[in-house]
Each structure stands twice: as structure tokens, then as C-alpha cells.
Amino acid sequence: MHSSARLDLAEDVPRLLAAQATLHSRVRDRALRLEIDWERNEVRWSGDLDRDAPARQPLAGTPATGTSLNLMLALAARRLAPGEEVRYALLERGRQRGVAYRAGHREAVEVPAGRFEAVPMQRQDDARRRTTTAWFDPYLPPAPVRMLQSESGKARYELRLLRIEPLQAPADAS
Q: Nearest CA to 111 among 42, 162, 35?
């Protein structure tokens, strides 16, 4: 799968402008594209949508995609006080689904890459009895140092930061 998102900054908050995703499989390749029209406050879809999904919809909140959500959460974790909440309209295959994350108190998180003081951003999905928590260190690039998803109180999957590698300076072209 390949996905990308184009954002801009509006008052130091990322704002989704467009996104696209391509999924290659043995059965069928899928491609989906969306654009946000901020003047009309709507999302426009093209490509492999769900059958009954309209090609245009009014935005049902601050839009995010799987590609942009971690960036948006990482930046929210830097500015929110513990207990404050941020809400997004998660855009997936022609559908919008409301999601909310609550910021927690900064806490120590131990992962293979080391020990970090990170802010947990937690989402509760009562219908699925699922809790998702992503911990973001405000001094690192905007990616979670740990992510944990639990269903009915049991861990279902966990992601942990393995290492941090410094960026290499580009080779001099001359």
C-alpha cells in the first residue's frame, strides 16, 4: 500500500488539503483520491469508493486520513493540556467517521529505542470495546514512540519505536 497526504498549516495547526492511497493485491488494485474544498466545506472523492458513498460530502469535522492522523495527533499532543480532547472526521473510502482523542499527563515510556517522556493520546471506541493509545514525545519528530490497541481489556496489537537514526546530510552535488 502506498498513501500520501498534502497539508498546510493554518494558525500552526495542520489542515488536510488532499490525500491519495493505492493498494496493490493479487485480486485487485485499488486507488482512492480525495480533495478538501475549504471554501465549500466539503470533501470530494474519486476512485474506488464504497458503492453507496457519494462523490461529494459536507465535512463532518476536522478531516484526517490514516496518513495524516499521526502527524495531527503528535502536534495536538504538544499543545493540549491533560484532559483536553481533539476531534477528527476520519476519511476512509468515501466515508467519514468521527474519532476523538484525549490528551493525558506526560509519562515515562520504555521502548527498544530508549526511555521517553511522552504524552498519551487515547481514543475510546465503546461500540467495539476498543481503546487505542498513542504516546508522543514532543521533542521527537511527529511519530508515536508507542501505540497500543486493546479490545475488551486485552492487548490486540502494539507498535514500539525500535531506533532513531539521524538524517544524513545530502551529498554535495558539486
A: 162
Contact 33, 4 (CB under 8 A): no
Gap between the Cα atoms of 70 and 141, Å rounded = 11
SS3 121: strand
What pTM, to 2 d.p., does this model score?
A: 0.82
Distance of CA 132 to the CA centre of its chain: 12
Grid coordinates belonging to 163: 531506533
Rounded Cα–Cα distance for residues 43 and 58 (Å): 6
CA distance 120 to 135: 4
Q: Over the stretch 117-162, which tens digit does the pLDDT of each residue have?
A: 999 999 998 888 899 999 999 988 888 999 999 998 899 999 999 9
